[in-house]
Amino acid sequence: MKKFILILIYVFFLHFGFSQTIKRIASYDNTTTSSSGIIGIGDTAVYEYSWYYSQWLPFPNNGLTRKLGLPVINEIYSFNNESVNPSGIYVISDTVVLVYNYYASAWLPLKNTGLCRINGLPVISDISGYKETSSGDNYIFVISDTATFYYQWYNEQWYPLSNAGLNIKKNNEYNGNLLNVKNYPNPAKNNSIIEYTLPKGFNDVVNIAIFDQKGNFVKEIVNKKQYQGKHTVNLKLNNLKPGIYFYEISCKNFKQAKQIIIIK
């Protein structure tokens, strides 16, 4: 019971203690005047801009993947589906693609069957799609590891597009997707472990730095030459104020930023 109360206090603190900012946007011609067709995602919510109210109005979070009670929203895509069910508004929430259903006022998941997996978890890094004018069919595409996949509604499964024609890296070059960057715990209090795996043949300088929510540099964590294999970094957070931060890991031909929430 005590743990449950602490979680409620923590969620309340995050909801009212930090202002949301739009980090990704998508738009479409909705052919109506009821809404703008401008969709944005913040750290823990999806919003639709209202011209009438001149403000961002949040969608319900029902159905979104959560970590420690907080909704997870990574990417967004939208198109005019000319229907409310499904809406044509899609998000990546951690390891699943969700479409918003206005009738149910909830985000409904697409099946993960067929997607690439790392440590048993589906890998999804980008999303796009469109509505076919002639047939009226919806086409949804995602990047999963090193391939592009499309969703087949009838079989409820993802199928890969051929990679034929793409440049192939040599064995001594690395693919950024293999870095598998993660950190835990998150949210964190005093310390958080950053973990990443450098692929075979890697031999380069790795830089890891902390930035605040506005993108301002806070401090550098790592700046040294590293080699292939698994690496861990103990990120000390004692001197940082509570809030939302980002740590960026970068090296030759690769850069990735991950969010970290600091609580006290």
Structure overview:
The chain is mainly beta and 264 residues long. It has two domains: 18-160, Neuraminidase (6 Propeller); 176-262, Macroglobulin (MG2) domain (Immunoglobulin-like), CATH 2.60.40. Helix content is 6%, strand content 49%. It is built from one helix and 21 strands. Strands 17, 18, 19, 20 and 21 form a five-stranded antiparallel sheet that branches. The protein is globular, with a radius of gyration of 20 Å. The two termini are 20 Å apart. Residues 1-18 have low confidence and may be disordered.
- The coarse silhouette is globular
- What's the helix-strand series? HEEEEEEEEEEEEEEEEEEEEE
Q: Quick check: average pLDDT?
A: 81
CATH class annotation of the largest domain: Mainly Beta
By secondary-structure content and strand pairing, the structural class works out as mainly beta
Describe the protein's topology.
Blueprint: H1 2-17, E1 24-27, E2 38-41, E3 46-50, E4 55-58, E5 66-67, E6 70-71, E7 75-78, E8 89-93, E9 96-101, E10 106-109, E11 117-118, E12 121-122, E13 126-131, E14 138-144, E15 147-152, E16 157-160, E17 182-184, E18 191-212, E19 217-236, E20 243-251, E21 254-262
Quick summary:
By secondary structure, the chain is mainly β.
List keywords for this structure.
2 domains, Neuraminidase, 21 strands, 5-stranded antiparallel sheet, 264 residues, globular, disordered N terminus, 1 helix, 49% strand, Immunoglobulin-like, 4-stranded antiparallel sheet, mainly beta
